[in-house]
Amino acid sequence: MKFEKDVAALPGVTRAKVNFMTNKLVVEGASDIEAIRQLAVKHNYTVHPVFDQKPQAAVRPKIHWERRRAVASGLTLAIAYGVEKLGGSAMVFIPLYIAAMVLGGWGNFQKAARSLPRGSFNMSVLMSLAAIGALAIGQYEEGASVAFLYAISEMLEAWTMESARRSIRDLMDIMPKAARIRRGAAEVEIPVEEITVGDIMIIRPGEKIAMDGVIIKGQSAVNQAAITGESIPVEKGPGAEVFAGTLNIHGSLEVRVTKLVQDTTIAKIINMVEEAQGQRAPSQAFVDKFAAVYTPIVMALAVGIVFIPPLFFGYEWMSWIYRGLALMVVSCPCALVVSTPVAIVSAIANAAKNGVLIKGGIYLEAMGTLSAIAFDKTGTLTKGEPVVTDIVSVGGRPEDNLLKLAADIEARSEHPLAVAIMRAAEAKGLPIQPVEDFVAITGSGARGTVDGQAVYIGNPRLFAELGLSIAPMAEAVKRLQGEGKTVMIMGTQDTILGVIAVADAVRDNSAATIAALKQAGIRHTIMLTGDNTLAAQAMAARVGVDEFRAELLPQEKMTAVQELLNKYGQVAMVGDGINDAPALALSTVGVAMGGAGTDTALETADIVLMADDLSKLPFLIRLSRKALAVIRQNITFSLVIKAIAVLAVFPGWLTLWLAILADMGASILVTLNSLRLLQVKPQQRAGQQSS
User: Fold this and answer.
1) Best CA proximity match to 590, nearest among 626, 615, 565, 619
2) More confident residue, 334 or 356
3) What is the mean pLDDT of residues 645-668?
4) Cα–Cα distance for residue pair 393/342, rounded to 1 Å
5) 533, 550 in Cβ contact below 8 A?
6) At what angle do helices 140-172 and 666-675 cross, to 10 degrees?
7) Which among 332, 453, 645, 679 is most buried, taking Cβ atoms within 10 Å?
8) Which reaction is recorded as catalysed by this protein (predicted)?
9) DSSP strand E in 301-369: where?
10) pLDDT score, position 121
């Protein structure tokens, strides 16, 4: 935070933001990279531009030397301890202890020398003061042990933090750095930054697709796990959309590029995940405030322990200086501060790998506290595509004959219901012969001439206008409408031929997902739809939601969500991210379906299910609740360890090396505990139990 403020204060800089978890500094305004570098050195950071790889190479030897110094410190400490215990001369073991302290603490002594002049009492300063203080009061073994243990602890902490950060770099590594582009008659491989919209990519079998685009030639299966989290490949051909970072399984493809590298779906996902990790969750805000109060109080207590007992009660200076140094080491709330962000990062990274994009810790935490979830019907609980569900004929006419007749009439119509009839006929392999004199009857149906006779297909109102009684099919029509289906009657001017019912197909996993959510503890599930009450009631019973709101206009969904918020408190809204944008924004957490390739869904919702897969919702609830549990465990553990350590100071039980172990050991343990969130897996199928 101090580095952030100092960078923001530089001339020409309007804003600076440090993302600790991704090791990134974002500077807005006119930035002087050299001025930022010099400032970074004072704050113990090394800064280099994101795309400048040379300084990164220069960092590696530094890490290597720190490891070597830590090992040398441990060996020297062991030799000094052996010499002392075997009765060796102090002239031998004291210099060895000092050498072990210098080797183990060299890096931190340097950081402390830069931090102290700025009044920054970070862990490097506290450790250095403790080691030098131990040396000053003749506790050579303690001083060397502190330096060595801290060096080892820092390496372990860096390793555990790197494990969390690696989960994001794994996402970045998905993106290919170059692609094969057709330029004239030749195929050339060029960096993705040089590819422009309209270029033709050549993708061979087994290669990753480098850019978003549309297939213009070829057929193949594409593994879209990087985007949607679904490992089962999807068959794609000309006209199908493909995404950067996905894998071409077999077959050669030619793809016309539709987006620049910075605008691809995977680039947006990575950017949003990074931004999400930089946002403070509610529990993290509490921890930061607590740490800001806790640290100065404990440091003041450490100073008091050093001076008050010897000055006012005549106690021995050395033992109370030692206790003050131990308390000073414990006063740094490392474990407490990292307890929340590492858990949030691990959960968000795991979700992203499984096709769920969470835009911040606040939404991750909110999902774990939900009492109700509202679902839009069309495109969420259903596929959003009408399909033929029932064919009822009169007089024993074969169903396929009635379906073929309907398809012949509807072949020239573009109405969604006509498309459903065409698909049903094609699925059965029926030969379709479009009628020549097709006439669309607005709002009612259509007409065509078959074998010299006019045949009508449409709603009951059409046949009422024709003066033809539908009595032979009245019972079937009423039953099908009661099931929430759209009924189309077929007949001539004097005869009813039959009924075809069409409905928006329910997603295969909708009912199982609702059941899994109830098992996960979601007490109320609600469906919001524009359908009539009868159809909504039938759909609600079919998928298993607890209640429904029917005949809602798009703007009325917002009112419905507000009522649910007033009634249940924490309510999520699941929709398609386009028509439902206002309701998504109003809810506690807005969850959009099918974000892959849908910019609107990516932008409007708080959480995006990249594939049209409702079964990811129970996984999301489990992950969120697990994250909340881990955060509570981390905070409780950190506070308990600190309390025990502080109380152990007064009777003199807390040694300096125990203080280091209590501080850095706790940091490592809470980080490792947080990394368990990377292991939470989605269920293979909605409703199937997962460990």
Assistant:
1) 565
2) 356
3) 82
4) 63
5) yes
6) 20
7) 332
8) Cd(2+)(in) + ATP + H2O = Cd(2+)(out) + ADP + phosphate + H(+)
9) 356-358
10) 67
Confidence of residue 472 (pLDDT cuts 50, 70, 90): confident
Rounded to whole angstroms, the Cα distance separating 533 from 250 reads 48
Burial category of 366 from C-beta neighbours within 10 Å (exposed 0-12, middle 13-18, buried 19 and up): buried
Average pLDDT of the chain to the nearest whole number: 83
**DSSP conformation letters of 159-204:** HHHHHHHHHHHHHHTTS-SEEEEEETTEEEEEEGGG--TTPEEEE-
Residues whose CB falls within 8 Å of the CB of residue 199, separated by 6 or more in sequence, listed in order: 181, 182, 211, 256, 257
pLDDT of residue 61: 40
- Do the Cβ atoms of 46 and 57 come closer than 8 Å? no
Task: Say which residue, 374 or 264, is predicted with more confidence.
Answer: 374
**What length does the chain have?**
691
Match 């950071």 to its residue by tokens: 45
Of 52, 170, 288, 376, catalytic: 376
Name the least confident of 211-220, 260-269, 290-299, 432-441.
290-299
CA distance 283 to 362: 9
Please tell me the predicted confidence (pLDDT) of residue 465: 86
Q: Which residues of 1-34 are buried (b: 16+ CB within 10 A; e: fewer)?
A: eebbebbeebeebeebebebbbeebbbeeebeee
Q: Is the pLDDT of residue 686 over 50?
A: no
* Pair 187, 181: CB distance under 8 Å: yes
Residue 470 φ then ψ, to 5°: -105, 20
Q: Is 199 a catalytic residue?
A: no
pLDDT digits (tens, 9 = 90+) for 369-391: 999 999 988 788 888 788 899 99
**Structural domains of the chain ordered from first start:** 1-49 (no CATH), 196-259 (2.70.150.10), 356-381+508-612 (3.40.50.1000), 383-505 (3.40.1110.10)
Query: What is residue 75's three-state secondary structure?
Result: helix
CB atoms within 10 A of CB 430: 17
Lookup: tokens for 343 = 């858990």
Residue 616 has pLDDT above 70, yes or no: yes
Instruction: Output the six-digit token pair for 246.
Output: 């996905």
Question: CB of 223 within 8 A of CB of 165?
Answer: no
Alpha-carbon span 447 to 490, nearest angstrom: 10
What is the pLDDT, as a whole number, of residue 229?
67
pLDDT at residue 173 in the model: 66
What percentage of the chain has pLDDT greater than the value 90? Answer: 29
Mean of the pLDDT values across residues 293-315? 85
Cα–Cα distance measured from residue 691 to residue 689, given in angstroms and rounded to the nearest whole number: 7
What is the DSSP pairing of strand 178-183 with strand 200-203? antiparallel
pLDDT of residue 54 exceeding 50:
no
Phi/psi region, residue 217 (left: phi>0; alpha: psi -120 to 50; beta: rest), is beta
Distance in angstroms (rounded) separating the CA atoms of residues 284 and 496? 69
Q: What average pLDDT score do residues 138-149 get?
A: 83
Residue with token string 């009657």: 489
**Count of beta carbons in the 10 Å neighbourhood of residue 87:** 6
For residue 597, pLDDT beyond 60: no
Give the separation between CA 280 and CA 274, rounded to whole angstroms: 12
Q: How far apart are CA 15 and CA 27, in angstroms?
A: 6
Q: What letters, b where the CB count within 10 A reaches 16 and e where it falls short, cover 613-632?
A: bbbbbbbbbbbbbbbbebbe
Instruction: Identify the CA nearest to 373 among candidates 530, 573, 608.
Output: 573
Using DSSP, state whether 150 is helix, strand or coil.
Answer: helix
Query: What's at 213, amino acid-wise?
Result: G
